[in-house]
Prior knowledge:
Blueprint: H1 2-5, H2 39-66, H3 71-91, H4 99-112, H5 117-129, H6 133-146, H7 151-164, H8 168-179, H9 185-215
Helix pairs in contact: 2-3, 3-4, 4-5, 5-6, 6-7, 7-8, 8-9
Amino acid sequence: MFFRRRKMFTIVIIALVSLTMLGSGFVALFSIPEQGVDPDSERKLLEDEYAQRRQLAASLSQSAENDPENSALREALADAWLDVYILASYLGAQETDGALGKALDLYAELTAAGPDSAIQLKYATAAFYDRDFTLTGELLTDLLAREPENIDALTVYGQYLFYGAADYALAEQVWQEALSLARDDTERSSIEYYISLAQTAKNAAAESAATENEDG
């Protein structure tokens, strides 16, 4: 998928702003800022990728119509639609294909056929983008009950806790668990960055609460 090919950490896709401030379509790809990357060149690459993803989704849609029982094909189509939505959001473009809804419907159908960790994680990610935090939490909780050391699920669960539930302390705890399972330095650095965000938010919330108590 798009985010794996660009070597971003697993499928950590979250909003860049507080969810209470999100407007319709105002969603972005969360990643560690890259150094030495020309913004214009990066945007051109993303625009090209967006066009390719839309073309792929259209092609896969036709193939899926001709072979509706092919689950691997339907998963690839769901992935393509999710990529289209992610890229459109990152580029600040209006997504007119209903890509997120299509991805959600396909992931729901695939998940109903039986537990599949990879599909369930992508379904949870799509649900998070749709701001359906109840579904996001249920999917990730179920997945982690089966695979408590699934580092990808732990990392995304931390994003859900941080942005969807505003539980900064628990998000930090979950990311600490993920950190202990990091497979390489890139993952380790990414998770350490997320932990620092949780710690900052947790401390800010504590200071705010203390100030309110003093004023009260």
